[in-house]
C-alpha cells in the first residue's frame, strides 16, 4: 500500500478511490524487512485492509509515512488541541459562548484565562475576538475552549483584535500558512510588515501600519487560495512594484 500511495502523491483523488494491501506489504518469515506502516491524515479512512478516500483533493505525503488529502474545504470540524479564532456571542453566568464557525457554539469559562480568579475576572465583552484552544472536541459533547496552555500561561492566547481585519479563507490555505517554512508568509513579510493571527478554523486576522495596507494584505491572502506558486509570486512582484 505504501508504494502505491507514493506513486499517486500529487495527483487529484476523488471520494471512493481505494488502495488495498499488496503482497509486498505482508510480513515474510525469511526476510527481516518490516512492511511500511501508513498513517492516515484528513481525507483518508481505513476500512479493513483497504484505504478509502473520503474527500476530493490532492494526495500529499510527509516523511516518513504520513498521507493526507489537501482540499479546498471551508467547513471546519473541531479537533482537540487546535487553536481557533472565535467571536464571543453571549455571556451566560460564568460561561461565555463563542462562535468558531462550526455547527454549534463552544463554551469558554471565565477561569480559562491567565491569572483569572473569582475576584479577578477577565474583561471580555460580547463581540470580542478570542484566540483559544480546544480542550474538548467530541461529536457527543459540547466543544470547550480555553485561553491557557497546560502550564496555565496564555502563550499568545486570549482577547485580541483592536484595529485589525477579520476574514475567512480555506482550511488548505491555513495549513500552508502554518507550515514551518511557509513561502506565503516569507513573501508577505518582505512585502508588508504586519501582525497576522491564523486560526485552524479558517479565520485570519491581520493588522498593518495603515488601513490600506491591511486591506491589500487581506486581498492578497484571499487570492492565494486559488493561485499556483508562480502566479502568487508574480502577483506579489506586481504589488511590490506598485502596478496594482
From TrEMBL:
UniProt entry tagged with the keyword Chaperone: no
Keywords per UniProt: Cytoplasm, Exosome, Nucleus, RNA-binding, rRNA processing
CDD domains, per database record: KH-I_Rrp40, S1_Rrp40
GO cellular component, one term: nuclear exosome (RNase complex)
Matching Gene3D superfamilies: 2.40.50.100, K Homology domain, type 1 (3.30.1370.10), Nucleic acid-binding proteins (2.40.50.140)
Molecular function in Gene Ontology: RNA binding
Pfam (any one): RRP40_S1
Keyword Cell division: no
Annotated InterPro entries: Exosome_RNA_bind1/RRP40/RRP4, KH_dom_type_1, KH_dom_type_1_sf, NA-bd_OB-fold, RRP40_KH-I, Rrp40_S1
GO biological process entries: CUT catabolic process; exonucleolytic trimming to generate mature 3'-end of 5.8S rRNA from tricistronic rRNA transcript (SSU-rRNA, 5.8S rRNA, LSU-rRNA); nuclear polyadenylation-dependent rRNA catabolic process; poly(A)-dependent snoRNA 3'-end processing; regulation of gene expression; TRAMP-dependent tRNA surveillance pathway; U4 snRNA 3'-end processing
Localization (cell): Cytoplasm; Nucleus, Nucleolus
All residue ranges annotated as the K Homology domain in the record: 164-212
The family this protein is said to belong to: Belongs to the RRP40 family.
Protein name listed in UniProt: Exosome complex component RRP40
Gene source species: Seriola lalandi dorsalis
Amino acid at each position: 500500500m505504501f508504494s502505491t500511495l507514493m506513486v499517486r502523491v500529487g495527483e487529484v483523488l476523488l471520494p471512493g478511490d481505494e488502495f488495498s494491501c499488496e503482497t509486498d506489504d505482508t510480513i515474510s518469515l525469511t526476510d527481516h524487512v518490516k512492511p511500511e506502516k501508513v498513517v492516515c491524515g484528513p481525507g483518508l479512512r481505513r476500512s479493513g485492509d483497504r484505504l478509502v478516500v473520503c474527500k476530493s483533493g490532492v494526495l500529499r505525503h510527509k516523511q516518513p509515512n504520513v498521507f493526507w488529502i489537501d482540499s479546498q474545504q471551508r467547513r471546519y470540524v473541531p479537533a482537540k488541541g487546535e487553536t481557533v479564532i472565535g467571536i464571543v456571542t453571549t455571556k451566560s453566568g460564568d460561561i461565555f459562548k463563542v462562535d468558531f464557525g462550526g455547527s454549534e457554539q463552544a463554551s469558554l469559562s471565565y477561569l480559562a484565562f491567565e491569572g483569572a480568579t473569582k475576584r479577578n475576572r477577565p474583561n471580555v465583552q460580547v463581540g470580542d475576538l478570542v484566540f483559544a484552544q480546544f480542550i474538548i472536541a467530541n461529536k457527543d459533547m459540547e466543544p470547550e475552549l480555553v485561553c491557557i496552555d497546560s502550564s496555565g500561561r496564555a502563550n499568545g492566547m486570549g482577547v485580541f483584535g483592536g484595529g485589525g481585519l477579520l476574514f475567512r479563507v480555506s482550511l488548505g490555505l491555513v495549513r500552508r500558512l502554518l507550515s514551518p517554512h511557509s513561502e506565503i508568509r516569507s513573501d508577505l513579510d518582505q512585502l508588508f510588515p504586519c501582525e497576522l493571527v491564523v486560526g485552524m478554523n479558517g479565520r485570519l486576522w491581520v493588522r498593518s501600519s495603515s488601513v490600506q495596507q491591511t486591506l491589500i494584505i487581506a486581498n492578497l491572502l484571499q487570492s492565494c487560495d486559488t493561485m499556483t506558486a508562480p502566479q502568487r509570486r508574480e502577483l506579489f512582484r506586481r504589488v511590490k512594484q506598485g502596478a496594482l
